[in-house]
Amino acid sequence: MRGTMLYGPRDIRFEERPEPTIVKPTDAIIRLSATCICGSDLWPYRGIANFAELPTPMGHEYCGIVEEVGNEVSNIKPGQFVVGSFAASDNTCVICHDGYQSSCVQREFMSTAQAPILRVPLADGTLVATRDLPPKELIPSLLATSDVLGTGWFAADAANVKPGKTAVVVGDGAVGLLAVLSAKQMGAERIIAMSRHEARQKLAREFGATDIVTERGDEGIARIKEMTKGIGADSVLECVGTQESMMQAIRSTRAGGFVSYVGVPHGVQLDGTELFFAEVHLHGGPAPVRRYLPDLINLVLNEKFNPGKVFDLTLPLDQVAEGYRAMDERRAIKTLLRP
Amino acid sequence: MRGTMLYGPRDIRFEERPEPTIVKPTDAIIRLSATCICGSDLWPYRGIANFAELPTPMGHEYCGIVEEVGNEVSNIKPGQFVVGSFAASDNTCVICHDGYQSSCVQREFMSTAQAPILRVPLADGTLVATRDLPPKELIPSLLATSDVLGTGWFAADAANVKPGKTAVVVGDGAVGLLAVLSAKQMGAERIIAMSRHEARQKLAREFGATDIVTERGDEGIARIKEMTKGIGADSVLECVGTQESMMQAIRSTRAGGFVSYVGVPHGVQLDGTELFFAEVHLHGGPAPVRRYLPDLINLVLNEKFNPGKVFDLTLPLDQVAEGYRAMDERRAIKTLLRP
């Protein structure tokens, strides 16, 4: 088969790779119905995050049909349609039981999913199967649950979004847009999306944003304060991962309010004294998508929402390099790839 | 009257000061039954925190009898025994209503309480009166509610201490010791106090610590991991405010667990990437003591516990300089001062 490899900054190749096979008895092999490119893939693509070894395979979002399972896999069966998190987890350890499967004691980050066939470790813990094969038109939304929606959902949950409250979303990437959708589902009264990109503003409004703020940095913070009686928002969802976005989030939050952060931080340093006097709650990390997967899959299957709208570009998998370019240049919000 | 002034590093003077009077109609004047020296007073005493202007008055913990109130004060009356937080608050703004009185929109930090007479701003919001004059022997414990107990209580609350859970307390100062007491009251099953000071270990055990860990830094973290099946504690209460104690707290906490921090940070910088992958909840700040005061005062009056034990040195107020010396040299945990 052919799979996606990153050779260096902006050098993506779709090339011959060994077809995955069962390595451990807890593995499953799945044939992907769809995969996609993550905002976090752009960090190494741009050469900002360095890998110890290049070339490196890419991709961690996936859904598809089970082809084969190891002999210790008992819940997942060949022929089933499954979705899994970007972080494989046993779903039995004490950390998983607490709902933090993305920090499972056996966690393995997925990294070879931009390919037609994928080995999934800890299949029983990682994968969630649907009862029936889903209709084709729901595949994009089901794929979204694997990471980008699950991560947006975690952003809203970790920021304590509640009915009647005000939520601010910093970042208009795919995760930020689905954080808007998640905040809407959780009943936020007012959802302020911070975006200066017209197409993204439009989708944010479609997903439930009540207000758009185009200002950034100190001006953005001042605008949020103005809109919240001078005190800041109840919940602020940081969906970027830069120093500027993190400080914008913390400084836009009221004392006693909640800041979540789900974008992998790059060069972020927090000053203890500022954080102390801000008196916010801070919580984030790699989203425990597995915790939310069953509910999110049900919401998609029952057509309660349409997170798949975040894919505004669909390409055949062998054009993956163009998919990266389109996202890098902000021509596309998120690229879905069809094997 | 005479009051306490800091002139510079280790230069405390008890000297003639103007007697406080009502300045705003929302003020009260109280005659102190007792005051004390806070661990946070040691930062400027040691010259680590710089004040813009020296000399500066000192002290922010207090309880006593109301002498006079401004004409807009309606809940608090002369003759009542009152306790107030180290942060004056209106207790009516939206931040106060949310339980974050220490970040009240009208907040004023108290700073002249190491004196016989004190002006308290926003008296109706700041002070809590007892129904009757309390017995003398309860004065130390009532004084403790004003900051050191309230802060330890916030540490336990912000770290989500719950029945059956494991709590670790980093710091064996008075706040750390009362954080142990608070965790005990909140039902923690296992309370691990980190201390290498014999008298403090003893008091920690008396307050409810089930285990003592003497190691610090990486060794301390390794010890906590060993004691918690390799995953870290559910709740870690950081009661110091240094880089080392903060990192010790974060690294001793399980993924999905809770870190609180209540010691004013000095030179603390948090790395965003480490925090992200630690996946802990982080919450702290100046403790919203006013939120807890009514309950804590009742617990003291009903003799449910004895937080006043944390005062292991009692001096007449005019010996305040010796009180600072004893704490600076760790001869005393906390000094109570009698006007």
Give an account of the 3D structure:
Two copies of one chain form a homodimer. Chain A is built from twelve helices and 19 strands. The first copy, chain A, is α/β, with parallel strands linked by helices and 339 residues long. Chain A has two domains: 2-147 and 288-338, Alpha-Beta Complex (Quinone Oxidoreductase, Chain A, domain 1); 151-284, NAD(P)-binding Rossmann-like Domain (Rossmann fold). In chain A, the strands form four sheets. In chain A, strands 3, 5, 6, 9, 10, 18 and 19 form a seven-stranded mixed sheet that branches. Chain A has a six-stranded parallel sheet with strand order 13-12-11-14-15-17, sandwiched between helices. The model of chain A has no long low-confidence stretch (mean pLDDT 97). Chains A and B meet through strand 15, strand 16, helix 10 and strand 17 of A and strand 15, strand 16, helix 10 and strand 17 of B.
Quick recap of the structure?
2 copies of one chain form a homodimer. With 339 residues, chain A is α/β, with parallel strands linked by helices.
Search tags:
homodimer, alpha/beta, 12 helices, 6-stranded parallel β-sheet, Rossmann fold, 339 residues
**CATH top-level class of the largest domain in chain A:** Alpha Beta
Spans where pLDDT lies below 50 across 5 or more residues of chain A: none
Helix content of chain A: 25-40%
Please give the most extensive interface between any two protein chains, plus how many residues each contributes. Answer: A-B, 41 and 41 residues
Count of strand segments of chain A: 19
Number of helices of chain A: 12
**Radius of gyration over C-alpha positions of chain A, nearest whole angstrom:** 19 Å
- Report the CATH topology name of the largest domain in chain A: Quinone Oxidoreductase, Chain A, domain 1
Query: What is the straight-line distance between the termini of chain A?
Result: 11 Å
**CATH architecture tag of the largest domain in chain A:** Alpha-Beta Complex
**Number of structural domains of chain A:** 2
Query: What structural class do the secondary elements of chain A suggest?
Result: alpha/beta
